Amino acid sequence: MSMEKVVKPYGSEGSKKEQVRTMFDNVAGRYDFLNRLLSMGVDISWRKRLIKEMKQYQPAHIMDMATGTADLAVMAAKSFPEARITGIDLSPNMVSLAKEKVDRAGLNDRVEIRVGDSEQIQSEADFFDGAMVAFGVRNFEDLEKGLQEMHRVLRPGQPLMILEFSKPTIFPVKQVFNLYFRLVLPIIGKLFSKDKKAYTYLYESVQAFPDYDALKLVMEKVGFKKCRWHALTFGICCLYIGEK
Ligand SMILES: C[S@@+](CC[C@H](N)C(=O)[O-])C[C@H]1O[C@@H](n2cnc3c(N)ncnc32)[C@H](O)[C@@H]1O
């Protein structure tokens, strides 16, 4: 078990994993809408950056962990017309929406979505040519275990790419970000989603999460090589890359 502070959506009752599953089941219907609204569309550019970095590895089969409503999985399938994508997520409601999205995009033949746990991946070792996870690792119950699993299922030399919120350090981005994330975002989240806690959890979980070099260290600890990170949008988000 890794040592990071455990922040759970609904307090002490029940495991983080159960609470995270419940929370995403609750917000699933409004998830895409709120993502676009709260990030003002910038989240799309972050996913595009990940795909751009993935291109150099020419992946034939990519695993998208914590795929949510499959935004990244669909973007990857469109960007790599020959590739297969497997997306897994804990939340059955997110998975149903993801499947509908894949269906609407006509990508059923190359994109498979299923309920699954990133900390216990149903796959043989050395199988995928790329692994990616957008805004998922912060929600893992055991970060190290999740990263170890991604390492296990990747073929040697192939990349893991992680997008995650980080804490900006520069003035005045840090101050504006804190105000927005701590005060504005929970109010909008509460208004539009059916879950009062979800967007408070978002702020608290970002605060507790190891970012920049701290996450790079955890990636190295579980065996990833050539680990590096790129700060995006003044350090609000960060793209982490490591190779098996
Ligand atoms: C903030 S959403 C991100 C979804 C998507 N990747 C995106 O970029 O929009 C986080 C997702 O992680 C999923 N999740 C959390 N822990 C997980 C785990 N251990 N295994 C698989 N999915 C998990 C949640 O169910 C949720 O759908």
Q: What features would you describe in this structure?
A:
The chain is α/β, with parallel strands linked by helices and 244 residues long. It has one domain (16-243): 3-Layer(aba) Sandwich (Rossmann fold), CATH 3.40.50. Helices cover 45% and strands 18% of the residues. It is built from eight helices and seven strands; from the N terminus they run ααβαβαββαβαααββ. The protein has helices at 16-39, 42-55, 71-79, 92-104, 143-153, 173-192, 198-208, 213-221; strands at residues 61-65, 84-89, 111-115, 130-134, 159-165, 225-232, 237-243. It has a seven-stranded mixed β-sheet, sandwiched between helices. Helix 1 packs across helix 4 (92-104) and helix 6 (173-192) runs antiparallel to helix 7 (198-208). The longest helix is centred in the first third of the chain and has 24 residues, at 16-39. It is globular, with a radius of gyration of 17 Å. 42% of the residues are buried. The model has no long low-confidence stretch (mean pLDDT 93). The structure holds S-adenosylmethionine. S-adenosylmethionine (SAM) binds at residues 20, 24, 65-68, 71-72, 88-91, 94, 117-119, 134-136, 139-140.
Brief digest:
This protein is α/β, with parallel strands linked by helices. It contains eight helices and seven strands.
Dominant shape: globular
Report the span from N to C terminus. 21 Å
The ordered string of helix (H) and strand (E) elements is HHEHEHEEHEHHHEE
CATH architecture: 3-Layer(aba) Sandwich
Overall mean pLDDT score?
93
Residues in helix, %? 40-55%
Count of extended strands: 7
Q: List unreliable stretches of 5+ residues.
A: none
Strand order of the largest sheet: 3-2-1-4-5-7-6
Which ligands accompany this protein? S-adenosylmethionine
| Portion in beta strands | 15-25%
- Number of structurally distinct domains: 1
Briefly note the structural class of the backbone: alpha/beta
The CATH homologous superfamily is named Vaccinia Virus protein VP39
Radius of gyration: 17 Å
For the largest beta-sheet, the strand count, sense and barrel status come to: 7 strands, mixed
Per the CATH scheme, the topology name is Rossmann fold
The first-level CATH class is given as Alpha Beta
Count of helical segments? 8
